[in-house]
Design goal:
mainly alpha; High-Potential Iron-Sulfur Protein, Chain A; 4% strand; binds iron/sulfur cluster
């Protein structure tokens, strides 16, 4: 009787022991966050190089109009040889914007900025009464 009881008990607990063994050996489930994250992992290697910014171009400024009130008051002309020498006695032959201390244009350019006319370009061959010899 004792053996029968032991066999009976063995048969009773064997399925549960098998299920427990299967549960212990089965792979663990992924955490919820990892399951929902479907983005591919970042590639290994050097960090990506950002694209260079577009080259900054110099803005083309409008030209000073000789008829502007400020231009007229300063005697500005686009052609220095046409300066009103009767009115502006300080005119020096050969003086022009390109050899003026205030001229900000580059050598060889036909026009460039001048602080007396903010936001505009003066002609390299121009002139006004504020001309000062470039050092
Ligand atoms: Fe030209 Fe010089 Fe007069 Fe400016 S200050 S308009 S650069 S002559």
């Amino acid at each position: 009787m004792t053996i029968f009881t032991s066999r009976r008990r063995f048969i009773e607990i064997t399925p549960f022991a098998g299920m427990a063994l299967l549960a212990a050996c089965s792979p663990k489930s992924e955490p919820a966050a990892a399951v929902t994250n479907s983005a591919p992992p970042a590639p290994l290697g050097p960090a990506p190089v950002p694209k260079p910014a577009l080259a900054v171009t110099t803005a083309v400024l409008p030209m000073v109009d000789e008829k502007d009130a400020q231009a007229r008051s300063l005697g500005y002309v686009e052609d220095a040889t046409k300066a009103d020498t009767a009115k502006f006695k300080n005119y020096v032959p050969g003086s022009e914007c390109s050899n003026c201390a205030l001229y900000q244009g580059k050598v060889g350019e036909t026009a460039g900025p001048c602080p007396l006319f903010a936001g505009k370009n003066v002609a390299a061959k121009g002139w006004c009464m504020s001309w000062a010899k470039k050092a």
